[in-house]
Amino acid sequence: MSQKKIIHPVSHSFEKNIDFLHKELGVGKSFDVIQLDLDYAGRKMAMFLIDGFVKDDILHYLMKLLSRLEPEQLDPDPLEKLMKVHIPYVEIDRQNDLDVVMDLVLAGPTALVVEGISEIIMIDARTYPVRGPQEPDLERVTRGARDGFVETIVFNTSLTRRRVRDKTLRMEYMQVGRRSKTDICISYIEDIADPEIVKRIKESVSNIDTDGLPMGEKTIEEFICGRHLNPYPLVRYTERPDTAAIHLYEGHVLIYVDGSPSVLITPTTFWHHLQHAEEYRQKPLVGAYLRLVRFIAVWIGIFILPLWYLFATNPRLLGSNMQFIGVDQGGTLPLFVQFLLIEIGIDILRMATIHTPTSLATALGLVSAILIGQVAVEVGLFINEVILYLALAALGTFATPSYELSLANRLFRLLLLVVTAAFGVIGFVVGFTLWMVLLIRTKSFHIPYLWPFIPFSYRAFRDVIFRAPMPLKNRRPTVLHTKDPDR
After folding, report:
1. Residue range 268-297: mean pLDDT, rounded
2. Domain assignments of the chain as residue spans, ordered by start
3. pLDDT grade, residue 468 (50/70/90)?
4. CA–CA distance, 223 with 78 (Å, rounded to integer)
5. Smallest Cα–Cα separation from 198: which of 160, 237, 255?
6. Per-residue b or e along 59-84, where b marks 16 or more CB atoms closer than 10 Å to that residue's CB
7. DSSP letters along 384-418, please?
């Protein structure tokens, strides 16, 4: 592979190097870009750094050591003497490309320019403002680890390595974004992961051509997955280090994005989005029960509204002993309009809750759900059955572990309701068929989205439906084509 051509090499002239970095970094124009002019050991020196990105105590310590140097202590090779003797720091490097130096300074390391040296010393004494690891709000468990990923990529990789102490665990560093230079990490276990999947994902990330990643991991997903008209997620997000570690052991590839507390798990299937860490924190029988209840809730969330509307508007489809499912008396508004208004109302309530302070969110929910809903029923706008079945559908949506999957299911539920209202039984059957065709044709990095249901694999499908005891889960998913199939 050919090396990148150096456009602005480090000059032998100290002044030219200083002038270039001073101009390109915007010293004097940006208050947080700092240039420290120094004079140690009879040589002119300069440090370039970003205020807030540097550990002040380490920098002060290194400057104190440099201030004690005598000119003869740097002879005959000042660069080697500085790096190996007089700057006792672990993360230190040299650079001969001014453009690379500029990018590194903007990322946090400090650049030390020394007169008479045709390379620049980079001291990685950076630190980022970061919150402490906390349990993710969307992936809470009653028992288990309470730590979660944060917005700093180095912290996140260390949380993963703490759980995967495998010598073949790879953390490959990349940068994406012509302007943002966002740090990306591709993580996988080399002895397990399929090399073709790893290669495909790395190529997809390296081919991203944009000036920045404003939405972090979501921007990465849209670039590497495509299929923008397909609402179903082709990657899984997690903020739990233990969940990330489990998927590494299965043979998946993780993508870390600096500035994001979510890690992308690739490739994934439909069923990965229905699993939750809580199932593995309980006894196998309890975990299997929880998973079964969750699956039932998800199917209720998708199908209960279209099915009930179909039966309510076509009583002949019901037997004589099932007539209670229908509507006793209609409301002021047509049945379909009632469903549509309440669906939109639930979305408005969800958005209002997100933008409401936590201390007021509970009160907002009570006012919206109880007062408005009760008044709407009493004045005859809505009927009780509509409120009941929409509440069941909403519970099924909230029981879905993956937030992205729950939104996709809600969109499909709404579309299925529309075609059922428009075309009756035929609309429901055609809508369901098109949904299945969409899922069957969907692939995540060439992995069938409905595997192990389609194509069918008995052993894997059994593990999907029932939470098997860990001693019996001794095989990795065959669809990932792992190097080591046994756990």
Report:
1. 92
2. 14-123, 137-268, 282-448
3. confident
4. 46
5. 255
6. beebeeebeebeeeebeeebbebbbe
7. HHHHHHHHHHHHHHHT-S-HHHHHHHHHHHHHHHH
**DSSP output for 84-96:** III---SSEEEE-
Residue 266 and residue 239 in contact, taking contact as beta carbons nearer than 8 Å: no
- Residue 1: the pLDDT is 40
CA 328 – CA 385 distance, rounded (Å): 9
Whether the CB-CB separation of 212 and 177 falls below 8 Å is answered with yes
pLDDT tens digits, one per residue of 188-228: 999 999 999 999 999 999 999 999 888 888 999 999 998 78
Q: Is 125 exposed, middle or buried (0-12, 13-18, 19+ CB in 10 A)?
A: buried
Reported as half-sphere exposure (CB side, CA atoms, 13 A), residue 218 has a value of: 4
pLDDT exceeds cutoff 70 at 320:
no
What per-residue confidence (pLDDT) applies to 240? Answer: 94
pLDDT tens for each residue of 6-38? 889 999 999 999 999 999 999 999 999 999 999
HSE of 425 in the Cβ direction (CA atoms, 13 Å)?
A: 6
Alpha carbon distances (Å) from 136 to 51, 229, 242, 277: 30, 29, 12, 12
Q: How many CB atoms lie within 10 A of CB 321?
A: 6
Measured in degrees and rounded to the nearest 5, phi and psi for residue 328 equal -70, -50
> Which of 2, 42, 38, 35 is closest to 20 using CA atoms?
35
| pLDDT, the chain, mean | 89
Take residue 333 and report the two structure tokens written for it.
């508004």
Which one, of 224, 289, 247, 266, lies nearest residue 466 by Cα?
289
pLDDT tens-digit readout, 111-167: 999 999 999 999 998 887 777 788 888 888 888 888 999 999 999 999 999 999 999
Instruction: Return the pLDDT at 125.
Output: 87
User: Is the separation of the CB atoms in 88 and 122 below 8 Å?
Assistant: no
The tokens describing 64, both together, are: 């104190």
**377 or 289: whose pLDDT is higher?**
289
Phi, psi for 233 (deg, rounded to 5): -70, 135
At residue 129, φ and ψ (nearest 5 deg) are -60, 125
CB-CB contact of 77 with 149 (8 Å): no
Question: Per the omega criterion (within 30 degrees of 0), is the bond before 455 cis?
Answer: yes
The predicted structure's pLDDT at residue 328: 60
| Cβ–Cβ under 8 Å, residues 148 and 241 | yes
Cβ distance 485 to 475 under 8 Å?
Answer: yes
SS3 label, residue 187: strand
Show the tokens assigned to 284.
Answer: 């196998």
> Distance between alpha carbon 417 and the CA centroid of its chain, in Å?
31
Radius of gyration of the chain (CA): 29
pLDDT of residue 472: 81
